[in-house]
Design brief:
Two copies of one chain form a homodimer.
Chain A: H1 4-12, H2 27-37, E1 49-54, H3 57-63, H4 72-77, E2 80-87, H5 94-97, H6 104-107, H7 112-136, E3 140-144, H8 149-156, E4 162-171, H9 187-190, E5 191-193
Antiparallel strand pairs in A: 1-2, 2-4, 3-4
Chain lengths: 194, 194
């Protein structure tokens, strides 16, 4: 079983940060996050999540106009920002990732609409792992959906083959980083025996 | 930072189980899983995931015909099976869950199509937390998308207000529980600086 300190770190004490300190996030830390979360399962091992890292001021200036205004100060303060996107051509990797059924690329995933459906779902699943991975590294995540996804897709992925789902600020918490904790549903409102 | 044993438990050594022992899963364990994962963040705190627990033989017999044949033996062997679904009327809870903006229920989420989109995405995110929570309890998860979701919706949720996304077997591993580990993408294939 997971020990209490780890439960606190990932779930009970972890919070969505809304401001960040200027302490940088080293590339080694980002790599360590990936080396953990890459093991999380996906359907047919498709691994559609791509993490576009916004670190330079230039990249940040390209991203900020697409965020809802109330989200901009958070992203301005975060040392690293990740655009979490689904790769809609994830099937190209299947001969490598699902080697006992390499035909899956063409037999199962020829249809772009099906790929968008499957890739988006599995990327959302991986975003759950990603948030846990950021917390596992002792950092705070600030995931946001308040942004113009179409605009971000055009600005950063002109190829039409990537779909932005979440923009996630990453770093150590800054001043007044938390909103009050919001209520959660009760166990028997969520877990229901049939 | 998360210690190595916890990293192993949740990510590195954790595997999708394909067979299960007959050891039962106590209700207290299911409750402990929820008490952890309920803290995972969702957009506007909407918490759309509902977990329908299949434990009795009668409930299992209703579920099995909707699974792909190759998935049925796994579900037959698991002591508990969860139908992980999005509640498409999650907005009804927002006055309680997002109390500083109770109008969100009607102002933001009046449109059923938008609710299906937002509720499905956030439920997938919570499924990521759910899989981590099952592993945190020292159990194996066996998430599957190979089933007739429309059929499950009609059989279990006649109201049209719930959408099944994943069927997840839960328990201790049985005999020959693992397939060989599948390859993962490299760090620089997934994390890309813009």
């Amino acid at each position: 079983m997971l020990d209490g300190a780890a439960q606190d770190l990932l779930f009970r004490e972890a919070r969505t940060a809304n401001s960040f300190s200027s302490e940088p996030v080293a590339d080694e830390v980002l790599q360590a996050i990936y080396e953990l979360i890459k093991w999380g399962p996906t359907s047919m091992n498709q691994q559609p999540l791509r993490v576009f890292l916004v670190k330079s001021q230039e990249a940040r200036d390209r991203l900020l106009p697409y965020l809802e205004e109330f989200n901009r100060p958070k992203t301005e303060s975060a040392p690293v920002v990740a655009i979490l996107a689904a790769d809609l051509d994830f099937h190209e990797e299947l001969p490598k990732l699902f080697p006992h059924f390499p035909q899956a690329k063409d037999v199962v995933f020829a249809d772009p609409e099906l790929r968008e459906w499957s890739g988006s779902q599995n990327a959302w699943l991986q975003i759950g792992y990603f948030i846990m991975g950021v917390r596992a590294a002792g950092l705070c995540a600030g995931p946001m959906v308040g942004f113009d996804a179409e605009g971000v897709n055009k600005e950063f992925f002109g190829d039409g083959k990537h779909k932005a789902l979440v923009v996630c600020n990453i770093g150590k918490p800054g001043e007044n980083p938390w909103y009050p904790r919001l209520p959660r549903l009760e166990y028997d409102e969520v877990f229901i025996e049939v």
